[in-house]
Amino acid sequence: MFDKVLVANRGEIAVRVMRACEELGVDTVAVYSEADKHGGHVRYADEAYNVGPARAADSYLDHEAVIEAAEKAGADAIHPGYGFLAENAEFAGKVEAHDEITWVGPAADAMEQLGEKTKARKTMREADVPIVPGTTDPAESAEEVKAFGEEYGYPIAIKAEGGGGGRGMKIVEGPEEAEDQLESAKREGEAYFDNANVYLERYLENPGTSRCRSSPTSTATSATSASVTARSSAATRR
Fold it and tell me: What positions does the domain Biotin carboxylation occupy (predicted)?
C-alpha cells in the first residue's frame, strides 16, 4: 500500500481518484496550472503543487514538472487518472525508472504499442484482428479526409492519435466539414495531449463496445479485466 499518491490530473477525474485514496487511508497530492489554482481537486487534496501556466501542454503534460512535484511532496506513487498523461508511454517510462516513485498504470512498453492509436491499429492489423476501416498514418489534409469519405462513406470520425476519453474526436458529416473538423481535432489533440496528429475512422452510429484488456504492469505479470459492454463515447463538434 502507498502512503502518498500524486494524482496527475485535474477536476472530477482527479477528485474520484483522491476519494478512492481517502477510503484506503492514503494521502493525496494535487497538481494544478495557474488557471486551476482554485479548482476542486486542489481543495480536495491533502497538498497541492503548481506545475505551470494555464496551457495544459506547459503544465499537466510537463513530465519534469509533475515528477518534481511528486519528489517535493514525498509521494511514493503517481496515478494519472485518464487523459493527459495516462496513455503517455514516455512519461510512464520516466516514472518506472524512478527509484522512489511507482507508476500506477500499464507498463510503458505495453503503452508504447497501444497508447498511440495509429500504432495500436497497426498492431491489430498485423495480428489479423478485424478493425473499423481507417488510417494507420496521421491525416494531414482536408483532401485526405474527403478521399476517405469517398471510399468509405460518411460520417467520418477524426481522432487524436494520443487521445482518450473522447477528447480530440470530431465527426465529419460531409466533405464541406472536412477542413474545419480536421483543424479542430488537431488543436484539441495538441492542447490536451501535446500531440496534434490525428487519424481517420469510419464513424459508427451508437455502437456498443466489448472490452477485454490485458496489459503487463510493473507490479504483476499481467492484468486482465472482465469483458463489459457499453455505449461508446460520442465525438463532438466543438
Answer: 1-238
Maximum CA extent, the chain: 56
Cell 479485466 belongs to: 225
Q: Is the pLDDT confidence value at 85 over 80?
A: yes
Q: Write down the residue that cell numbers 486551476 correspond to.
A: 36
pLDDT of residue 209: 59
Confidence check: pLDDT of 212 > 80? no
Separation in Å, CA 73 to CA 64, 97, 115, 194 = 14, 18, 28, 25
What pLDDT was estimated at residue 38?
96
Give CA angle at 70 (67, 74), nearest 5°. Answer: 145
Architecture of domain 4-105: 3-Layer(aba) Sandwich (3.40)
**CATH fit for domain 117-206, picks 3.40.50.150, 3.30.1360.10, 3.30.1490.20, 3.40.630.30:** 3.30.1490.20
Q: Where do you find CATH 3.40.50.20 in the chain?
A: 4-105
198 close to 189: Cβ distance less than 8 angstroms: yes
Say if residue 155 is preceded by a cis peptide, omega within 30 of 0.
yes
